[in-house]
Amino acid sequence: MENQKLGSQTYQPGQAPVIIGHGCVGGRKEQEGPLGRHLDHSSKDDLFGAKTWEQAESRMQQLALDAALKRAQLHTDNLDFLLAGDLLNQCIGSGYAARAISAPFLGLYGACSTMGESIAVGTMLLSSGAGRYAAAVTSSHFCSAERQYRTPLEYGCQRTPTAQWTATAAGAVILTSDNVWGVRIPRITIGKVVDYGIKDTANMGSAMAPAAYSTIKAHFEDTGLAPDYYDLIITGDLGKLGSEILADFFATDGCPLSNYSDCGLLLFDMNQQDVHAGASGCGCSASVLCTHLLPGLLNGQWKRVLFCPTGALHSPTSAMQGESVPGICHAIALEGVQ
Amino acid sequence: MENQKLGSQTYQPGQAPVIIGHGCVGGRKEQEGPLGRHLDHSSKDDLFGAKTWEQAESRMQQLALDAALKRAQLHTDNLDFLLAGDLLNQCIGSGYAARAISAPFLGLYGACSTMGESIAVGTMLLSSGAGRYAAAVTSSHFCSAERQYRTPLEYGCQRTPTAQWTATAAGAVILTSDNVWGVRIPRITIGKVVDYGIKDTANMGSAMAPAAYSTIKAHFEDTGLAPDYYDLIITGDLGKLGSEILADFFATDGCPLSNYSDCGLLLFDMNQQDVHAGASGCGCSASVLCTHLLPGLLNGQWKRVLFCPTGALHSPTSAMQGESVPGICHAIALEGVQ
Q: In chain A, where are the structural domains located?
């Protein structure tokens, strides 16, 4: 079968790339959460042996990649592409992690959608014949994100009920163009930037829900598939409010999603861990992918999952200049061993 | 011919994608420079009708893309991919520009190498069969970059002799997978992150030169081509010092580059415009590409050009934490109408 474009936003490789390794690293709060026991590494002080939170993020990316490579029985030298991005200014979490990795590097910025973007780009690059192995890596860190986006931790700012908790986590997956055993990526849908005018930067779920709606709808229009084709449709980090808004959108269309969840609701214990509207950050969807979705696809819990990481493309500067928050979402179909 | 990977970092599409449109926008200083008359739009106050420098960057990207689409006789609706990035925190120059453009969006971060990264990714995506048209867009703005990376303009800080002047410019090119008339992209080389330990953030040329050396050397090793295969080898924004260092590296190898230049030396009049070591910023290589290289390839001035944008993957935070400056460079072969 030939590689082909379906509709306006979807790509279907002739031979689906396969995820042959995954790795995940999380902080103390993530380790204490419901998925914590599946982490490859954790750190009690969230510093992972580094001196700063930013350097800790780079270290987390390296640890996650090492774990993924180990599962894939590969070394960094085998990688044709390292695709990585994060939330830090100038993506330094990824740039400094990549410094220690001898692989062709492509930096990506999709905010919290980065795990989706990197897997989507990796899928297209590998099926073009440009390489055999690609790594998709991302991270976020609560402490570096708080001081960059909001206020320094020392300030002790009270959080609003709609606020989400940035995950201290990094995830990595290894893709191959080989026809081998593993979770396949039979199709992807690249999102458009969508902005419904939300200006409250403590309400990211509402800002990103319209982008998730746009991309998931495009996925079904482009492919002709119905939502129940998938055992699970899961967004990145819409959290409690955003995921309710997304469900409302589809219900209003007369097409309620019966098989829908959100990574932001799964990473932490929503009753016990005081994270308000849920988890967020690039590391949220990346870690739920690596600790929950991929293991579940490999052990037969699900056969088909539509993984839809979401991102908010604003900055503190744009917010201070009165801009609203544009969102984006990419959809990745994941199919387990049948 | 099949798409194939050459050596460890180079990709050769079976059918080379073609650049069928380009557009360029610059500020007042760029308009007064030696390439100024080739700009599609300029702005006397560098605001392009916007209220802030950051919003001006988004406006510049839109104007550059409009000009490129016009030359290609296309509309934004025709785009299968919009590939864009910039220097601003969270790449807001690109994210907010993309909000007004109905096209699947992939945000990239390669600092000043972004024009190279976006064309390289576009080349691979189109030759995978994932689409027919892709736009590669980037920008930088002197005023937004100064206050973000260095000091606010109002502070009037004196610049060191090694400092470069961030271009206020945006460039856009339209790629197609169709076999049509235009500048072809027969091969690309994806760079690795290289860090020789330079910590002086007012000396970006020195920090990026080792990455340019690594990528250009890999290009010749992977392809078996000699430097004189190209009529011109041109780096992104190494400036006066960095380009001398790169020339030294190759001369020391016994392989002097007789056909070498740098975009950072061409955008401004180095004697008259008081830019110290030359131009820099994502907009530097993008605007030299669109106002000088592509027109020269189309009119037969050159037949083959190796375009090598360079980027420094640091941030003000990483510099304050004592980190050195990692560099990256991607090489894009451009071949004109024979």
A: 4-176, 183-335
Interface touch B117/A106, C-beta < 8 Å? yes
Whether B106 contacts chain A with CB within 8 A: yes
Q: Which site among A57, A112, A126, A128 would you substitute to test the B interface, given the most B Cβ atoms closer than 10 Å to its Cβ?
A: A128
Question: How far is residue A153's CA from residue B212's CA, in Å, rounded to a whole number?
Answer: 40
Any CB–CB contact under 8 A between A43 and chain B?
no
B84-133, pLDDT tens digit by residue?
999 999 999 999 999 999 999 999 999 999 999 999 999 999 999 999 99
Q: If residue A104 lies in a helix (H) or strand (E), which one and from where to where?
A: none
| Domain with residues A183-335, CATH architecture | 3-Layer(aba) Sandwich (3.40)
With contacts defined as CB-CB under 8 Å, which chain B residues touch A117?
106-107
Residues of chain B with pLDDT under 50: none
Question: Distance (Å, rounded) from C-alpha B6 to C-alpha A184?
Answer: 26
Do A139 and A108 form a contact (C-beta atoms < 8 A)? no
In sequence order, the β-bridge partners of residue B108 are A108
User: With a threshold of 0.90, does the pTM exceed it?
Assistant: yes
State the number of CA atoms in the 13 A half-sphere of B26 facing the CB: 29
Q: Are B313 and A106 inside 8 Å of each other by CB?
A: no
The fold adopted by the segment(s) A4-176 is Peroxisomal Thiolase; Chain A, domain 1 (3.40.47)
Give the best residue of B318, B320, B324, B330 to mutate against chain A (max A CB count within 10 A).
B318
pLDDT band at A112 (very low <50, low <70, confident <90, very high): very high
- The interface pTM score, or ipTM, of the predicted complex is 0.98
Do domains A4-176 and A183-335 share one topology? The answer is yes
Give B-chain residues touching A130 at CB under 8 angstroms.
Answer: 3, 5, 11, 124, 128
Q: Which residues of A touch B166 (CB under 8 A)?
A: none
Nearest to B287 by CA among B19, B22, B18: B22
